User: Fold this.
Amino acid sequence: MAHSSLRLAQIHRDGQRAVVATEGGASRVVKNTASVLELAQAAIAAGRSLQAEIETRGLGEGVDLAALLKAGQVLAPIDHPDPNHVMVAGTGLTHLGSAEGRDKMHKDLADLSKATDSMKMFRMGLDGGRPEHGTAGVQPEWFYKGDGSTLVPPQGAFPSPSFALDAGEEPELAGIYVNGPDGTPWRIGFALGNEFSDHVTERQNYLYLAHSKLRVSSIGPELLVGEPPADIRGTSRILRDGKVVWEKPFLTGEANMSHTLANLEGHHFKYRLFRQPGDVNVHYFGTATLSVSDGFQTREGDVFEISAEPFGLPLANAIGRAEAPWPVVKVL
Assistant:
């Protein structure tokens, strides 16, 4: 299967938004286009591909996307005027070897022969996560991250709540979807993602997984249009005071997964809640590479950097801190 090399990014400068298309090493502004959502909705309405919609609109001035990223002028590659209409969610234990890190956190020390729920879920994926085309396979683990307000732009800082016990990276592939007027989900492409999580909270009890995932995250800077390569090889690193203090390669793409993308997509979009017309879905597909599995402890100010060649510019985010007070519920 031929894979597209077209990538899209959203930028803002001088109070104006624009979409930048990169292909063949050249980055140019898509004419008369303020957002990827607008572009996708127009393509859906016209019954043509994103590439064809871009060709119809035409390309304008060339830009230095790397310089814009450095200047903090690159947005997440998808958003919505109303963040409540963006669903950020994901699936875990989807990658070959991904159970190892999770199992370290959840192993029952009183009975080492007893399989953890994580290992059971992983084995279910190995046995039934790659069904025949058009049929449903085993359900994956699923988690909720938040709405569009939780998406931090590339180069933005991750606020880690005052009650957090950990601030950990998860380098992942994220699918980007726009629902058509009839609720049909249209996949417009994939982006690199950092599915920021609290692994120490999760380690206490598997039922705390939901709490550990209620954090911000980041995607981009660029969106790869169309089908991704089956074998994606990238690098996840952590920088402290400008120096690399932890680094490891990561593998993703269907060749390195226990589930097919179609199976994971099917089990997400089988719920009507996620097929509301006009809504955007950002869906993380899991990882097998975590610094916490190596015993590494992050600090405020550390910078996560995730890169993989098909996706263009790297995704970098620093760890910040949100000193949110404990909420007090009042009675009317």
Summary: Residues 132 and 219 are 30 Å apart (CA to CA). The first strand starts at residue 7 and ends at 13. The chain is about 20% helix and 30% strand.
